[in-house]
Amino acid sequence: TKGIKPLVAGNWKMNGTAASLPEVRSIGNGFMRGLDAECDAVLCVPATLLTRAHQILSATPVKCGGQDCHARPSGAHTGDISAEMLKDAGASHVIVGHSERRADHGESDAVVRAKAEAAWLAGLVAIVCVGETRAERDAGETLAVLSRQLAGSVPEGASSKNTIIAYEPVWAIGTGLTPSSDDVAAAHAHLRAELGRIVGEAAATTRILYGGSVKPSNAVELLGIENVDGALVGGASLKAGDFLGIAEAY
Ligand code: PEP
């Protein structure tokens, strides 16, 4: 979109140990070789790797992110991680409302919204995920689902500085399937318009990423679609060559 620098975001999900740090280093080095002129990058690693990934990436243009945060700043929530903790460990971004969290942990739009607000409070950029299931698409409900999720998950006060939207059709995640370019264009145009109802003019400059089976071979087509301001990349972000190959689409 005119006036928006694209962002390629990686989501390592529950993958990665110390053995994966060379991959982090390769991604950082790749962006130092000029890719950052065309697009920004953030790598959302497991929380256990954040500090080490940040140490490696702080000398590069690539930023670090978490994959989820608790809605509360601290307290009796065993096993959870607050936005402030992610920030302290080196994160600048955090994914909230990923479909795997919505499905595996029953996260509602209201919970996702509270997490986005918690992220802001800690000074993190919230990457808010929305997307329809296969059944919803087959029922012709895609745009209605996106309207509902966006209205429920994006807090008032969202701006291009504190929020990124990620459109991720659930059926396209990790499946190798992608929507047609026309369907991606329709979803992103719809999200831009709906975002305008929540944040007004800020919608024009807020990034809307596409996510779901993005890889180097389809990146040029997907990232060239109107209103697509970058990608959220799962599987293909685990290998530096693939992640950099996607960024090279710009
Ligand atoms: C994701 O998990 O956000 C994702 C888009 O996964 P994949 O790229 O593997 O489909």
TrEMBL record:
Alphabetical UniProt keywords: Cytoplasm, Gluconeogenesis, Glycolysis, Isomerase
Catalytic residues (positions): H98 (electrophile), E168 (proton acceptor)
Binding positions for substrate per the UniProt entry: N11, W12, K13, G174, S213, G234, G235
GO molecular function: triose-phosphate isomerase activity
Signal peptide: none
One Gene Ontology cellular component: cytosol
Metabolic or biological pathway: Carbohydrate metabolism; erythritol degradation; Carbohydrate biosynthesis; gluconeogenesis; Carbohydrate degradation; glycolysis; D-glyceraldehyde 3-phosphate from glycerone phosphate: step 1/1
Compartment(s) of residence: Cytoplasm
Domain of life: Bacteria
Keyword hit for Ribosomal protein: no
Gene3D superfamilies: Aldolase class I (3.20.20.70)
Family the UniProt entry places it in: Belongs to the triosephosphate isomerase family.
Protein's job: Involved in the gluconeogenesis. Catalyzes stereospecifically the conversion of dihydroxyacetone phosphate (DHAP) to D-glyceraldehyde-3-phosphate (G3P).
Subunit structure: Homodimer.
Protein name in UniProt: Triosephosphate isomerase
Organism the protein comes from: Aquibium carbonis
Gene expressing this chain: tpiA
